[in-house]
Amino acid sequence: MQNRLKLRRHVHERRFKRDIRRDEIREVLENGEVIEERPEATPFPKYTMLGWTRYGSRPLHVVAADDEEKDVTYVLTVYEPDPDLWTDDFREKRD
Q1: How far is CA 4 from CA 74, 81, 82, 92, 95, in A?
Q2: CATH class for the domain made up of 4-79
Q3: What's 86's DSSP letter?
Q4: What is the model's pTM?
Q5: Side by side, which strands form the sheet with 59-67?
Q6: Which of 21, 71, 75, 86 has an alpha carbon 20 to 30 Å from 61's alpha carbon atom?
Q7: How far is CA 30 from CA 13, 17, 23, 57, in A?
Q8: 74-90 residue pLDDT tens
Q9: How far is CA 57 from CA 15, 51, 69, in A?
Q10: What is the pLDDT of residue 29?
Q11: Domain boundaries, given as residue ranges, for the chain
């Protein structure tokens, strides 16, 4: 994760609807684990991180991309994974 976070407009809309705080996003990016990487994505490689927030101990997925040259992490989306769509540990999608 880079020093500065930039949340896309979509992220602001979604996080308010889903009651996800900005500091929860930062917490996942700082302490979570990468569960998927897409190095071929453009303009920057993107990745999905899983983390458990201290506010309610819920899992969150954060999809982000780092611009190392500008020292910015772009947050593309954030959501609480649906247990019907994800394995019990929220690391893989169910078949």
Answers
A1: 9, 25, 29, 28, 36
A2: alpha beta
A3: B
A4: 0.90
A5: 4-7, 72-79, 59-67, 46-52, 33-38
A6: 71
A7: 22, 23, 10, 16
A8: 999 999 999 999 999 99
A9: 16, 9, 34
A10: 95
A11: 4-79
